[in-house]
Amino acid sequence: MEILQVTNNLSIKRSIDTGTDEQRDVVKEIIKDVRQKGDEAVRFYTKKFDQSSLLTFLIKEEEIAEAYESLDDSSIAIIKEAAENIRSFHQKQLRSSWITTEENGTILGQKITPIDSVGVYVPGGTAAYPSSVLMNVIPAKVAGVKRIVMVSPPNKLGKLPAAVLVAAHEAGVEEIYKIGGAQAIGALAYGTETIQRVDKIVGPGNIYVALAKREVFGDVDIDMIAGPSEIVVLADETAYPHEVAADLLSQAEHDPRACSILVTPSNTLAQAVAKEVSEQLAKLPRKSIAAESIHNYGVIYVANGIDEAIDVVNELAPEHLEVMLENGMEMIGKIRHAGAIFIGRWSSEPVGDYFAGPNHVLPTNGTARFSSPLNVDDFQKKSSIISYSEKALRHNGHKIAQFARLEGLEAHARAVEARFKKTNI
Q: Distances in Å between the alpha carbon of 196 and those of 184, 345, 354, 396?
């Protein structure tokens, strides 16, 4: 890994992919086709991109049963326990509607209502992602969403991975379709003959899925446009080099564009970690992917002290931040920007990816400066409640009318003053 000294002109290595003009044009054409031709277009693109010919997209109960039969008991138990951990964490995020009253009779409040329907996209391809199912579905269920629709690209045999189906069933999904790509996003956003449209779409995907979510945003809500995965390890001389290297590589194997960074005030640790990364990389099954990631987006920043190191972390605003410092918990108050913070050597990033309970759908590409992990609030909307009494309006009406006239909106002012004019009522 490249080792750089921190300077005032810090050059951040980060992969940002907004797609090519050609990719954007392809996505627009697919979504246009789905809007116009519905199921016919979805079928066509599923055959074209996934080499799967399907007459029906809906997963049947028999397929769920087959998934349970094909998966070993230990894996099923782990999925169930992870689901319970995630559910327990997100239940603590629930908010309640509230009402306040004042002596003059004014009633103000906020009404919290779950979104009616949510579409969850689960990536497919060469891997299975049951964790993605749990992390996207469970907060929606906790929030009270009544209809959750899951979509995922099928393999050439028209099947979804058993672990994905088991996770979906454990999370409470009752509507699952074997479709993926931009065509699935179009179907969720606008509906087809067999798929009713939803109000919000969440879940990660490839560049075509990301561009499709961007394209339909406004007609439906989306969670975020997620970039490649990233990790920053903030460590001092007390950290173990082989553990730091292993954690950096755990992100690098995700994607050739994944970003793995060590920030440390210790040049000794920097040298040791660089050596460990090289040695461990040679033994990884996904060596080619991880090697490209480390070469293009892997870096070690050596800072002049812990305060400067923390400044670098806040500048990076990483998706995942591991804190491996002698007094790590004491430093948390100085960290302002990170999607998820893992403290101590026993809190390796995969602990949060799969099992601990907090959500692993996190802001990427520095958006942790202003964004939060996926949470229950993302699946609820809030309505304000205003009930003014006659006494309150008589006391404040002239102020409201004057404020309206400050903005040149005379009709607004007269709408208030009309309440005090004599009528025949």
A: 12, 46, 31, 47
Mean pLDDT of 191-215: 96
Cβ-based neighbour number of residue 174 at 10 Å:
11
Q: CB neighbours (10 Å) of residue 418?
A: 9
Tokens 């949470």: give the residue.
375
The CATH T-level fold of domain 227-370 is Rossmann fold (3.40.50)
Q: Annotated catalytic, 320? A: yes
Residues 283-301 pLDDT 10s: 999 999 999 999 999 999 9
Catalytic residue among 230, 243, 276, 319: 319
For 2, the 3-state DSSP assignment is: strand
The class that CATH gives domain 21-222 is: alpha beta
Residue ranges per domain, the chain? 21-222, 227-370, 389-420
pTM assigned to the model: 0.92
Instruction: Mark whether 90 is an active-site residue.
Output: no
Q: What DSSP line would sit under 390-413, residue for residue?
A: HHHHHHHHHHHHHHHHHTT-HHHH
Which residues belong to the annotated binding site for NAD(+)?
121, 183, 206
Residue-level length of the chain: 425
Closest listed residue to residue 233, CA positions, set 364, 360, 341: 341
